[in-house]
UniProtKB/TrEMBL annotation:
The keyword Ribonucleoprotein does not apply. Pfam families: Sulfotransfer_1 (PF00685). InterPro entries: P-loop_NTPase, Sulfotransferase_dom. It is an enzyme of class 2 (transferase). Residues 51-292 form the Sulfotransferase domain. GO terms for molecular function: transferase activity. Belongs to the sulfotransferase 1 family. This is Sulfotransferase. Its EC number is 2.8.2.-. The keyword Transferase applies. PANTHER family: SULFOTRANSFERASE SULT (PTHR11783). Keywords: Transferase.
Length: 298
C-alpha cells in the first residue's frame, strides 16, 4: 500500500508494519494505513448520513467480506439475479476510507441521492456525528483475536511479502499484542462498538463471526430483522446462506486471482495450527485481558 499523507496527517506518529516503513499512522488513538488517514479525516468532516443508510463496520480479517455479501443480499432480496456471481463483495460495498484509492465500487460515497450500504474499518469514536446522531444503522462483526491474527498474518504476507519469506509469526504476534496493526488496538476497537451496541441495541447490531458459523440461520435472521427486511418466505434463509457461503464464493471465477486473498479457510479455531503456547500466553495477557473484562471471547 502506497504511503502518502497531506498536511493534515503528515505530523502524526508513524511506524513500520511488516517491515514496511511508515506504513501505519496513529490517528485518534488507533493505527491506520497511512494512505487512508486523509480519506478517513474527510469522511469524518464531510459525510452526511441518511436515516436509511446502513454502515457495516469491522476490524480487518474478522469476516468483513462475508458480512458484505450477507447484508447486500438481504437488502436486495426480491430483486432478480445474484450480483455475487460476477462481483466480489468488496465491489458491491465500498470501504469508505479506501474507496478513493481502490475505486473498487466506482461510487461516490458522498452522493446522498439514494440510501447507501457502506463499510468502514474505522473505530466508533471517529465516525461522523451524523452517523451517530441519525437513524442510520450500524452492523459490526467481531472475531476471536487469535483467528483474526492468523488470518491477518496470511493476508499481509500476500500483500507485503509476496516474493519473500513470510514475516516470522512471532513478530506478527508482537505487532498484534502492541496494537500496531490496521485498526489496532484490537480490544479498543471491539470495546467501542460492543459498549455502544449495549447502550443502543437499535442502532448497532454486534455480531460474532463464530456465532454466524455455529448458528447461521439464527444470526442471518437477526441481521435481516435489524435491517428491516425479515425473512418471510420458505427457504429464503437457506438460499441466502448458500449464496454467501465460503464454499460457493471461493469457487466463483470472479473470486479467483486478485480476489482469492479474501477467501482462505473460513474456519473457527485455525489458530491452534499455528500459535505456540508462549504466543498464546502473550495474546491472553494483553488483548485477552481487555476482552475478558468485557465478557467477550475469553
Ligand atoms: P481466514 O483467513 O481465517 O480463512 P475479512 O473479510 O474481514 O478480510 O476476513 C477474512 C476472513 O473471512 C478469512 O478468514 C476468510 O477466509 C473468511 N471469509 C471470507 N468469506 C467468507 C464467507 N463467505 N464465509 C465465512 N468466512 C469467510
Amino acid at each position: 500500500m502506497a504511503n502518502s499523507s497531506s498536511d493534515l496527517s503528515r505530523d502524526l506518529p508513524k511506524v513500520n508494519f511488516w517491515d514496511e516503513p511508515d506504513v501505519l499512522t496513529q490517528w485518534e488513538g488507533f493505527w491506520l494505513f497511512t494512505a487512508l488517514v486523509d480519506p478517513a479525516m474527510t469522511f469524518r468532516s464531510n459525510f452526511v448520513a441518511r436515516d436509511d443508510d446502513v454502515l457495516l463496520t469491522s476490524l480487518p480479517k474478522t469476516g468483513t467480506t462475508w458480512l458484505m455479501a450477507l447484508s447486500h443480499s438481504i437488502l436486495k432480496k426480491g430483486e432478480r439475479g445474484d450480483p455475487l456471481t460476477t462481483n466480489n463483495p468488496h465491489s458491491l460495498v465500498p470501504t469508505i476510507e479506501s474507496e478513493p484509492l481502490s475505486n473498487h465500487c466506482n461510487l461516490d460515497i458522498y452522493d446522498a441521492s439514494a440510501s447507501r450500504l457502506l463499510h468502514t474499518h474505522l473505530p466508533y469514536s471517529v465516525l461522523p456525528d451524523s452517523v451517530k446522531d441519525s437513524a442510520c444503522k450500524i452492523v459490526y462483526i467481531a472475531r476471536s483475536p487469535k483467528d483474526t491474527l492468523i488470518s491477518m498474518w496470511h493476508f499481509y504476507n500476500v500483500i507485503f511479502r509476496r516474493d519473500r519469506e513470510p514475516l516470522p509469526l512471532d513478530r506478527a504476534v508482537d505487532f498484534f499484542c502492541s496494537g500496531m496493526h490496521p485498526g489496532g488496538h484490537f480490544s479498543d476497537h471491539v470495546a467501542e462498538y460492543w459498549l455502544e451496541s449495549r447502550r443502543r441495541p437499535d442502532k448497532i447490531l454486534f455480531l460474532k463471526y463464530e456465532e454466524i458459523k455455529s448458528h447461521p440461520k439464527r444470526e442471518i435472521s437477526r441481521i435481516a430483522e435489524f435491517l428491516g427486511r425479515p425473512f418471510t418466505e420458505e427457504g429464503e434463509v437457506e438460499e441466502l446462506l448458500w449464496r454467501c457461503s465460503f464454499e460457493r464464493l471461493k469457487k466463483l471465477e470472479v473470486n479467483k486471482t486478485a480476489n482469492a486473498k479474501f477467501f482462505r479457510k473460513g474456519q473457527v479455531g485455525d489458530w491452534k495450527n499455528y500459535l505456540t503456547s508462549d504466543m498464546e500466553d502473550r495474546i491472553n495477557q494483553t488483548v485477552g485481558l481487555k476482552l475478558e473484562a468485557l465478557g467477550l471471547f475469553f
